[in-house]
Amino acid sequence: MFFQEPTPDTSGYMIAGYVIAFLVMGLYVASIYLRSRNLHQDMAVLEEMEKPAPVVQPQAKSQPGKKGPARSKNNTSVRPVTKKSRKK
Amino acid sequence: MQTKPLALRILDILAIVLLGISAYLALNAPTERVMGEVQKVFYFHIGTAWTALLGFILAGVFSVIYLITKDLKWDRFQVAAIEVSLVFFLITIVLGSIWARPAWNTWWTWDPRLTTAAVTELIYVAYFMLRQGIDDPDRRARFGAVYALVGGLSAPITFFAIRLFRTIHPVVIGGTNPEADGGFSMTPDMRSAFFFALFAFSIIFIDLFWNRIRLGDLQEKVEQLKLKVSM
Question: What does pTM read for this prediction?
Answer without folding.
Answer: 0.83
